[in-house]
Amino acid sequence: MTDDNDEAIEYGRWLFSQDCLFVLGAARLEQVPDQDLPEVAFAGRSNVGKSSLINALLGRRDLARSSKSPGRTQQLNFFRLGGRLMLADLPGYGYAKAPKDTIARWTALVEDYFKGRAALRRTCLLIDARHGLKDSDRRVMALLDAAAQAYQVVFTKCDKITESRLQAVERETASAIEGHPAALPQILATSAREGDGLPLLRAALGALARPGQ
Fold this sequence. Notes:
This protein has one domain: 3-Layer(aba) Sandwich (Rossmann fold), CATH 3.40.50.300. Helices cover 36% and strands 19% of the residues. The protein has 6 helices and 7 strands. The protein has helices at 3-15, 50-58, 100-116, 135-147, 163-177, 198-206; strands spanning 20-26, 39-44, 76-81, 85-89, 120-128, 151-156, 188-189. Strand 5, helix 4 and strand 6 form a beta-alpha-beta unit. Mean pLDDT is 89; it is low at 66-72.
């Protein structure tokens, strides 16, 4: 590992150990906070482990609420990290049992957010490593491509599958994201439970908030 990588990992560790404050939850686009910090959004299917991953990145247990009930997060939740980075926890998608009007409202809110958020520097598209890409994930990828919003695929729950299966899913996903103009080529594999991949993800996101970057 190079000195630059060591420095990036150390900065990411430092940044994600700073105070992280809940700013607000936005149920409508006009409630989204105006701010000039670089912003990172976390998007994924319902029950993909978004809240668990955010808490693990921050070394917290309950900053972002997690639930075994899909569809609990129904608004855009914003957190200010160390005065240097804004984190946005987006409503989960792909939960077919939610009322149709609720699904439509979530979808419209997230679409408008992606289209009009100048501060958004990257979206972490969380994919359950046990299942790989689903049609709903591909629809979000197309939406991000159309909005020219950079996104990075991040696998969750990697501790729940074998290494050989993880490698196969990584190959399948890498092939699937080729040709998507807004997709970053690097896929990160994480486990909120075991901590796997968290230093690399902190480093990648911390690079967006480093002075002079």
